[in-house]
Amino acid sequence: MSDDTIRLVTIGRMIRRRWRLLTILAVLGALVGYGTSLLLPPRYTTSASVLLPGAWEERELLTQAEIATSSVVVDRAAATLGWTGVSGSELRDRVSAKAADGNIIKISGTAETPERAQHLSDQVAQQFVTFAARLTGADTGAEASARPEDLRKMVVRTSRRITELADAADPGRTVESVQGRTELEKLRIALQEAMKKLDEANPVTNKSNMVVMGPAARPAGEAPPTRTQLIVAGALLFLLLAVIGHLTAARMSRRLRTEPEIAAALGSVLLGTVDVPGERPAHRPEGGGPRARIRRLLGLDVRWDLPTPHASGDEAGRQIRYRRVCARLRDRLPRPRRLLVVVPEGDEIARRAADQLAAESDGDSAPSSSGRGYPVLRVVGVSVSQPLVPDRGTESGVLVVLSAGSWTAAELTGIAEACADGNHEVVGVVVAGAVRARPKRSGGHPPDDATPALAVRGHATGGAV
């Protein structure tokens, strides 16, 4: 799988074969999320709305939202609330503001109880309106609000005085009188323009008349993340980490999966591949002890990264494969002799294939007329961690049988070195693969390809090839 693309079918196969482990990890993640919810106190959030009259640009609304959460506003709200042990700097983390449609600033407050959240939002909104009014000078009292009207009255009186002076001047008789009337008229026009600008400035000044649109609503539920959300998030997080861990481990796996790689690691030649009908449970070595029982309970003794076995042919077709391997093995030997069939411990598929090869070899172990019968095979299991092959005695050679995708190059090299230490030559390699056996036919008639298989059997028994 190290070079394969990760597909949905791969993830589905992993979930099917590791569902017990994934379920336990998801439950563990849910417990972690529940424990986290106990450490985090519940939070409640509500909002108060402040209306800004007049025409406002978007950047101005963003500025007002920043002012609403400024330290000046929040500190004044904290001083007014007077909560024990809660300072303005702590409240700044609980207050937020954003500009909404319709020139509205929404001020949100978060607290441990619904009542506190409501009071916090209302107080910050009130302090924001007060502070904004002070910035624009809208709260300087009745005297300040009367100043524009007094200015208008003064301008009107000045305009009347200018008219009186213009009428009193000698109308057009001297140059000085004409210049005086001209200057007075310019002064009148300047005063009128000033009053016009003052009237146009009134709407901008009215922007400071912000209004709090009622008290904040009391929150009915907790603010996220709630306890349920933390539990679900913990379960999903552990499940996702388990899936990613499985995929990463499979992608970094160095187990050999192709026949040429396996033969090269053992320093021998490939004699063929054989099929072994898969049985349920597959790849489940028997063993005692608590660790073995826990692995079987969690499904860790089943390889999940191996592809689903493909459908095999009938029993006669599988027998042909075994006989062909025995025939190639016989052709490689100068004379019939005894061989060790080395199988890595824990490789149940290879063990069954080796037993089948030994049975086929025993069926035709007698030398033929040409003196070339099948060799006699004896199956032995070898530990991969500490490989040890029996010394050379009656057997003079080794046939290695193993399944693909189960062992690394270093492990197979260790087996080859153990064979060399026992003064054995690795005469060949056989790769076994699991297949799904077809159901037996209900009728008594043999399949169409059974006749060639029987003919091969009789031909091999006769000894002539």
From TrEMBL:
Organism superkingdom: Bacteria
Compartment(s): Cell membrane
Residues covered by region (Disordered): 438-465
Keyword Cell membrane: yes
Membrane topology: Multi-pass membrane protein
Main location: membrane
Record-annotated membrane-spanning stretches: 21-40, 230-249
Domain (Polysaccharide chain length determinant N-terminal) ranges: 4-63
Family: Belongs to the CpsC/CapA family.
Record's protein name: Wzz/FepE/Etk N-terminal domain-containing protein
Organism: Streptomyces rhizosphaericus
